[in-house]
Specification:
569 residues; mainly alpha; two-stranded antiparallel ribbon; 6 strands; 36% helix; transmembrane helix; transmembrane; membrane
Length: 569
């Protein structure tokens, strides 16, 4: 039995039931004029017409017309008499109607008479205020006829066997599926995927996709693992080779082909090895560094140009570089004039005598001289004082101008370490050019470091305007020898007085037009920091290694007599 006693149940109400009023389950309706609930007979106002099957809850035109004729058009219909109100309904007259109740084959219920259409007792007796039991939000939906009923929607439950399906969920991340974000099928909601197709087909497709994606993920992991193992192996092998393996190296003393390699000042083992490798002398840098470390004298390799053989073992390369005969370096001693340097360059490069000097005089402006060293009058050699004393690579195949540029650059670098302009001003000199000139005179006349400082004081004292002993004349033999290109100790007075050259300090006051040689570091330092003891004179008493100084002319004459006695004059 369904709710309200009207649906198709297991067994209909019995027709003799006092509350029976539906009369729609195949039983005969009450006879004409008979009250279904025992009330007095009412004469029918309308003949009986068989009713067409219709929805009891849809608007019924015929039924509405009946209600109008009966006078109850505005009264709500109570089609489900309750037992507790049986007596009340029995006492009220009713209009008997004949209907074939129940559900026909079309699934619609025929309209049925109801005993004495009475107002709903729950409306408190107000006509026209009927309650729609199916119109409230919390009401159940109205029942449907049998022909239009649909099976209730039952939530789909995944099929389960006797045991729990322990298959892991499908991995959706692109890293494991191998698909781009735009190609992922997982972006579709899961419920919409379930609604497509049957369960069995869905399971089979899901498992197939799951197997394919799992395979791609495994392949990716395998590749990553292989790359990682290979990388670790390579790093380990490389580390072993660097730490324990022998470096590549040639064997033997090399081929007959030679090459000149220039090693710069301050170069270490790795830099030397790099230069040798680039020249084809050694096979690897590591081999040379190892050979240099193995040789007790390997760290004494000096800067310069070396004549090497190609294809040498690292050990033989180190041994040859330690042999002075392999060095093609020109060492310029302190105080040497440019004329000596030019001759050495010509000899080492295999050039005719005078070649380098001609290039120096013609291209002096492009050698890299500082601005304060240019444009001076009566200068015999613009590069004098700028071929800085040091070791320079000079080997066949090199150009004279390239060698000279290195020397000039070295001098400019050394001179630039101090503010020569400011220092010259302190010493009452006319710029750095005169300061280098003083240093060259000190270098030429002095013998030791102590001599250099005293010699510098002699120069500055003789240049003073109040010098009445020499009248601001230096009277240096070294300056006269420079202009003659000689190194004579004995110079006659007649020769000195007759020469009008600007470099003749016996003739002219002040400094020479320019440096007379290339001063070293100590001579320059002495020129910057002379003694202040009042030295005015000096004499090389032995002519070579010993210099004595005097403050007065009388002391000088005494020293001169000693010199003449030793020299046999």
């Amino acid at each position: 039995m369904t709710e309200y006693g009207r649906g198709a149940g297991s067994e209909p109400w019995h027709p003799e039931d006092p509350l029976y009023g539906d009369q729609g389950w195949g039983a005969q309706q009450a006879a004409s004029g008979q009250a279904p609930y025992g009330g007095p007979e009412q004469q029918p106002q309308q003949p009986y017409y068989p009713q067409q099957p219709q929805d009891p809850y849809a608007p019924q035109p015929q039924y509405a017309e009946q209600q109008t004729q009966q006078g109850y058009a505005e009264q709500p219909q109570q089609g489900y008499p309750q037992q507790q109100y049986a007596e009340q309904y029995a006492a009220q007259p009713a209009q008997p109607q004949q209907f074939n109740g129940g559900w026909d084959s079309t699934g619609q219920q025929a309209a049925m008479p109801y005993a004495g259409q009475q107002p709903d007792p729950y409306n408190n007796g107000y006509a026209g205020e009927g309650n729609d039991l199916y119109g409230t939000p919390e009401a159940y939906p109205p029942p449907q006829p049998p022909g239009q009923r649909q099976a209730p929607t039952v939530p789909e439950v995944p099929e389960q066997g006797g045991e729990w399906d322990a298959e892991p969920q499908e991995e959706n991340h692109p890293f494991f599926t191998g698909a781009d974000d735009g190609e992922r099928e997982d972006d579709e909601p899961r419920e919409s995927r379930r609604s497509k197709g049957g369960g069995g087909g869905r399971d089979r497709r899901g498992k197939t996709k799951k197997k394919g994606k799992s395979g791609r993920a495994c392949l990716v992991l395998a590749v990553i693992f292989a790359v990682g193992v290979g990388g670790v192996g390579y790093v380990g092998y490389d580390f072993y080779q660097k730490k324990f393996g022998a470096a590549p190296d040639y064997a033997g003393e090399g081929t007959s082909e030679t090459v000149t390699v220039e090693i710069p000042t301050g170069a270490g083992g790795s830099e030397i090895g790099q230069l040798l490798k680039q020249a084809g002398v050694v096979k690897s840098i590591d081999a040379f560094v190892q050979a240099q470390n193995d040789d007790p004298k390997g760290k004494t390799i000096q800067a310069g140009a070396y004549t090497m053989k190609k294809g040498m073992s690292a050990a033989n390369a180190v041994k040859l570089m330690l042999n002075p005969s392999s060095r093609n370096s020109l060492i310029i001693p302190e105080g040497k004039r440019n004329s000596w340097v030019y001759g050495e360059i010509d000899t080492r490069l295999g050039l005719p005598a005078g070649t380098t000097k001609d290039i120096a005089l013609k291209k002096a402006g492009s050698m890299g001289l500082p601005d304060w060293a240019k444009g001076h009058k009566n200068v015999k050699d613009p590069l004098e004082g700028f071929l800085y004393p040091a070791s320079y690579p000079v080997a066949k195949g090199m150009k004279p101008e390239d060698v000279l540029k290195k020397m000039v650059n070295r001098a400019s670098s050394e001179y630039g370490k101090q503010d020569l302009a400011a220092e010259a001003k302190k010493l009452n000199l006319d710029g750095p050019w005169q300061l280098i000139t003083v240093a060259s005179l000190v270098q030429a006349e002095g013998k030791t470091h102590d001599d250099f400082r005293k010699m510098a004081e002699v120069v500055y004292n003789r240049l003073k305007p109040d010098n009445t002993q020499t009248n601001q004349k230096l009277q240096f033999d070294s300056a006269y020898n420079y202009l003659t290109g000689k190194s004579n100790i004995k110079i006659g007075l007649s020769e000195i007085n007759s020469n009008q050259d600007p470099y003749n300090t016996y003739k002219w006051r002040g400094l020479t037009p320019g440096p007379i040689g290339n001063p070293g570091t100590e001579a320059l330092a002495a020129a910057l920091d002379p003694t202040k003891d009042g030295w005015m004179y000096f004499v090389a008493t032995d002519g070579q290694h010993k210099t004595e100084f005097a403050k007065t002319l009388a002391e000088f004459n005494k020293l001169k007599e000693e010199f003449n006695a030793q020299s046999g004059q």
